[in-house]
Amino acid sequence: MAKRVRKAIFPVGGMGTRFLPATKAMPKEMLPVVDRPLIQYAVDEARAAGIEQFIFVTGRGKSAIEDHFDHSVELEALLRDRDKDDALADLRETLLPPGDIAYVRQQEPLGLGHAVWCARHLVGDEPFAVLLADDLIMADTPCLKQMTDVFEETGGNVVAAMEVPDDQTSRYGIIDAGGATGDVRPVEGLVEKPAAGTAPSNLAVIGRYILMPEVFTELERQETGAGGEIQLTDAMARLIDRQAFHGLAFEGERFDCGDKLGFLEANIAFALSRDDLGPGTRDMIARLSKAFA
Ligand code: G1P
């Protein structure tokens, strides 16, 4: 079995109801943070971690994602004619090598576990990554690269982990790390969206996973869990006693772009962090804070 993580799944079938009407005719993964769509940050992060094959689990109305990662012959010709070299270079960055990108449809929105299972034939019998584009992570070393580094040491399953406040544990998959501390913690239990007051800890799974292919066998059962959905967390939980399983408290700032405030925060943070936009954004925030105080 390949030891290296070469393939990544991007579940992009979700409806994006929280961003309506913006997402009525546009996939939520195409919402821009500053000047690039959310999905591109996820793909770039995967590339930086050495991923070579990109598998999108899509749904109805998601064709803009396919177009985004494709050549745009007319646009490129126009930019070339007008000597817009910078814009051309930005476009080239969106291209993935021919044949390295595959799409499979999740025909019904039955949950994250079901979406991942839909990609089983494309992944085959090797470890793979899953990236949820809603979770945007700003980090010096891209989060998935931090995780593949851990994977090379530990093998087995590795999930990204982050402490969340008590009143938010019911929104996440929560890790029981048996009280372990440190960056890399053995996972002893996992529970999807525990009811308030029942979470085994405050350590939440964030949308980055390195998983062993045996998880597909567990997903095959098609058992439903929290919210009546087929949950990835439940399938992962059944691997814990059989395989190495670690949570990595990654370094970096995570933005929940599935939430309006989180999405705004990401836009502001990414703008502030850029040389071309940082100073202007800082002035703008100061001015607006006074104007709308
Ligand atoms: C999904 C997972 C959950 C995880 C979360 C991270 O939930 O099911 O375990 O903690 O992503 O963002 P969702 O946000 O899709 O409800």
Q: Can you describe this structure in just a few lines?
A:
This protein is an alpha/beta fold and 293 residues long. It has eleven helices and 14 strands.
Chain-wise SSE layout:
Layout: E1 7-11, E2 32-33, E3 36-37, H1 38-48, E4 53-58, H2 63-68, H3 73-81, H4 85-93, E5 101-105, H5 112-117, H6 120-123, E6 128-131, E7 135-138, H7 143-154, E8 157-163, E9 173-176, E10 184-186, E11 189-192, E12 203-211, H8 214-219, H9 232-237, E13 245-249, E14 253-256, H10 260-272, H11 278-291
Parallel strand pairs: 1-4, 1-6, 4-5, 8-13
Antiparallel strand pairs: 2-3, 6-12, 7-14, 8-12, 9-11, 10-13
Describe this structure in words.
The protein has helices at 38-48, 63-68, 73-81, 85-93, 112-117, 120-123, 143-154, 214-219, 232-237, 260-272, 278-291; strands at 7-11, 32-33, 36-37, 53-58, 101-105, 128-131, 135-138, 157-163, 173-176, 184-186, 189-192, 203-211, 245-249, 253-256. It is an alpha/beta fold and 293 residues long. The chain has one domain (7-258): Spore Coat Polysaccharide Biosynthesis Protein SpsA, Chain A, CATH 3.90.550.10. The strands form 4 sheets. It has an 8-stranded mixed sheet. Strand 2 and strand 3 (36-37) form a beta hairpin. The site of 1-O-phosphono-alpha-D-glucopyranose (G1P) has 13 residues, from strand 12 and helix 9.
